[in-house]
Amino acid sequence: MRQASINTGTYERKTRNKDYVKFRRIKHLSATAFPLVMAAVVLQATGCGTWVDDHLCGKGGCQWSDEEWGRVSALAGLPEAAPSDASNKYVGNAAAEALGKKWFFDTRFAGTATLMDQLKRPVPYARAAKGATMAVACVTCHDVSNGTIDDTSTPGNVSIGAGWFDVNAQPALNAAFYQVSFWNGRVDSLWAQALAATEGGVSTNSTRLRVAWAISDLYRSDFQAVFPDAALPMSGTSAALASTLATDGQCALSNGDCPDSCRVAQSDAGGSPGCWPRFPLQGKPGSKAGCQPGDTSEPFADAWDCMDPSDQAIVNRIFVNFGKAIAAYEAKMVSRNSAFDKWVAAGADSGLISPQAQQGAKLFVGKAACSDCHNTPLFSDNGFHDIGVPQTGPGVPTEAECPAGGVCDCVETPAGVDADGNTIPAKAAKNCLPWGARDGISKLAKNAFLRTSAWSDDPSDTSRQHFVDMSPDTIPVGAWRTPTLRDVALTAPYMHDGVFTTLEQVIDHYNRGGAASGAVGIPAAQIKPLLLTDEEKSDLVEFLKTLTGEPLPSDVVSAPVLP
Fold first, then answer.
1. pLDDT of residue 5
2. What's the pLDDT band for 62 if we cut at 50, 70, 90?
């Protein structure tokens, strides 16, 4: 039987985890109330009831079993340094970090505004007028002085760059701890994430050739100092070259001939040849194989695909190093020393977080079952789950907006036979954005910049291969990657489509067992009504607020001096 006593105002008991916890003081007990309290103490001491714990122990926050405390303490202590990355040897390299920071802040790599969404539909506004060069950089959507998020976009649920995203941009803070990047897991390294965002048509809308030329113009000595083994063969400046080119970026013909300073690119489609400088000013891989000079459906008249393959390799190396330097800088964005971490380190009875937050922690690993997915010190299992979030909001595509043959195609059919007995091949969905990771993982396998590729600093790194090898069919429709909850109080809006603007709305969503309508797929079995009281929901929010870390160091957040 547990020992219990009341003295001059303090009730103490020995908990299962051997910690002594002070309960609230009992003051001014009336002659009637004192016997009731004593009776409750006896019941509690003999293991019957929780009245004393609930009313004298800060709403029960001090009741910690060994199992509960083990679950909670396992969530604390995110390493102060991001993990090493075999695919990126520049993580931890001070010179690469400094250069990557400049590139993270430099808006001169950006392309022009498209005013299109991910389905290539026109939108009313973006970061600049359509066709105008934007002044955006990584820091635009990942503000290091504001939780590494962007809260300046309108309408606010999704991020905006050259056009409108289909998702809410996730924080860069702690991103180095994810095993795959983006909400749908379509890249397997942080440096590949930077490359995809750079060339994304609704984000920066730049190209690898534009990046290479900007580095040549502005960062030649810095680049060569950090990457001495990488070539930077552009001669002259981009401005000088631009003055000699036609409006489509090709070289001006001389008496109908391609000048000696440029190269003839033969068409693989049987059309007229092209004429480009060795390194065009703009270009990235198109959607069609081979060189189609002047094809307006391909980026910049297919300038990239018409380059010599050896020169493509040179530019790709420059581009990859650009991403690796940015990732090296981002690896310094680690959330440290949250109130939660300090409380766990000091012990359950330290009082470093409020009784309400402690009760929220108990709910997090217990009744609310949040830690089923938000586990590990990252508060993420790095997995994919359908949690019944409504697929709604400006810029967010629905399945109905993704018909067969569309830019976004969510229609798949099994193989079959027609009326004449001829085999009809199966048709897979193509670019079905609302399906989340089911779509993203299919793209991951085709990514040219995998950590097992020639562009990795260790192509033998198979640490993410299990994601690459996943069959998309095994991933639930509408599943998205579990985000970290560290600093979650700073990173609204929430969910992949930014549908919730407050933590209270997030808790309400889980409490009612997901959305009543508008969700994609079938929510996971764990998504069911939690029957939390208003007080319990409030306690969970108080706990989530304790996950905010200390401000990032000044050397991380201060704006660099750019050339």
1. 35
2. low
For residue 294, give the amino acid letter.
Answer: G
CATH code, domain with 205: 1.10.760.10
24 and 89 fall within a common domain: no
The answer to whether residue 45 scores a pLDDT higher than 90 is: no
Determine if the pTM surpasses 0.85: yes
Residue 18 lies in a domain: yes
| Predicted pLDDT at 437 | 98
Q: Residue 82: which of 97, 60, 98 has the closest Cα?
A: 97
Distances (CA, A) of 429 to 253, 284, 435: 44, 25, 10
> Could you tell me if 104 and 138 are in contact, meaning their C-beta atoms sit under 8 angstroms apart?
yes
Do both 97 and 9 map to the same domain? no
The CA distance from 10 to 33, in Å, is 16
**89 shares a domain with 235:** yes
In terms of Cβ atoms closer than 10 Å to its own Cβ (0-12, 13-18, 19+), residue 73 is middle
DSSP string, 3-43: --EE-SS-EEEE-TTS-EEEPPP--S--TTHHHHHHHHHHH
For residue 365, tell me if it sits in a domain. Answer: no
* Inter-helix orientation angle 355-365/66-73, to 10°: 90
486 in a domain, yes or no?
no
Are both 94 and 32 inside the same structural domain? no
Give the amino acid at 491.
T
Q: Is residue 192 scored above 90 in pLDDT?
A: yes
Q: Kindly state the percentage of the chain with pLDDT values over 90.
A: 83
User: Is there a domain that residue 93 lies in?
Assistant: yes
State whether 213 and 113 are in the same domain: yes
For residue 81 the two structure tokens come to 């340094």
* Number of domains making up the chain: 2
- Structural domain that includes position 45: 5-57
Q: How far apart are CA 262 and CA 294, in angstroms?
A: 16
Confidence of residue 58 (pLDDT cuts 50, 70, 90): very low
**Does 20 lie in the same domain as 94?**
no
**Half-sphere exposure of residue 180: CA atoms within 13 angstroms, side-chain side:** 28
